[in-house]
Amino acid sequence: MGDVNRATTAAARAPKQDRSRATRQRLLEAAVACLAEHGWAGSTVAVVAERAGVSRGAAQHHFPTREDLFTAAVEHVAEERSTALRELFPQGAAGDRRAVVEEIVTLFTGPVFRAALALWVAASNEEQLRGRVTELEARVGRETHRTAVQLLDADESRPGVRETVQGLLDMARGLGLANLLSDDTARRARVVAQWAALIDAALGAPEDA
Amino acid sequence: MGDVNRATTAAARAPKQDRSRATRQRLLEAAVACLAEHGWAGSTVAVVAERAGVSRGAAQHHFPTREDLFTAAVEHVAEERSTALRELFPQGAAGDRRAVVEEIVTLFTGPVFRAALALWVAASNEEQLRGRVTELEARVGRETHRTAVQLLDADESRPGVRETVQGLLDMARGLGLANLLSDDTARRARVVAQWAALIDAALGAPEDA
């Protein structure tokens, strides 16, 4: 009997957990879209809850404060993007560093970057946000750097290689900014082609070549 | 008599124009400081007028709308910075491109960049600002590019040179972002040293060498 009860409870619990996870996911995605479209000033828990089709109470159950919701949202999508990037090159990308550079730059030119930027700029003016966003940014930045090094087959023990990759990520961020107000696709493609070649030369032969 | 009257009027007008110019200047500088510190949401004509020690009426005489004031302010300081950059290298900088790269990056890491960024991000969410800031950004961007090409002694008729310089300016913007929430000075110095070397090699011998 005890076993049967436990099994029933577990079965009832599983769909509830699924629903809770799905609600959380919808809130995170709505939060990112909201930040990207309306900026920090226009992004509140209430607006996001409505957009996600979730009651305000349920939203606050998952994310007690506005800061909780939006930092969790940016971290969540940044992780998703990073995973997607690695999955694009399951064998690494030896021999096609240009494709890797293109994909890295793409990470910084969509709505996720706009959302992160809105949070970043708000954090620069709001004490309550600053500490959390700084920490989040450092974590996401380290992860992106690690992924870039791996996909580019870059040997960081060689002098200058680490800084070459860092500069690439800085450039990608700058290209994201340049795409904020107008469509910068054509110019960006030319810059990326040129810098992919410079970076390929600077990194030298892939480690496993 | 007519001549005397004209002379008197001109004499009275000159100091008045000077005062008006000084007021305008104070407003522009206060507007940039305000944007950098408080972001777009915290930046109004009234706040800037008080900071500049100017009546609100006088501020509105110079800048009828909030958009007028802040776009004029960012343009004004961007021009000042660009002039200052050229004056640092009155003979061009043949032979010391690293110094030029360092100074260009410095343009993007101070309060002026923070102010421009706040305006930029606000414009991405506010229709009223978007057109004007896009136009301003294009104008300032072209001017910065022209200055960079000249100071780096870059020959844009060579394939890839234009894109190399553009990528440098994108990287500089990205470094500005990286410096927004925490002091990135030490890391930035290493990235700039490495990228200055890459750029120097990519640009080839200076035109006049």
TrEMBL record, chains A, B:
It comes from the Bacteria. SUPFAM superfamilies: Homeodomain-like. The keyword S-adenosyl-L-methionine does not apply. Keywords: DNA-binding. InterPro entries: Homeodomain-like_sf, HTH-type_TetR-like_transc_reg, HTH_TetR. Residues 44-63 bind DNA. Residues 1-22 are annotated as: Disordered. Residues 21-81 form the HTH tetR-type domain. PANTHER family: HTH-TYPE TRANSCRIPTIONAL REGULATOR PKSA, HTH-TYPE TRANSCRIPTIONAL REGULATOR RUTR. This is TetR/AcrR family transcriptional regulator. It comes from Streptomyces chilikensis.
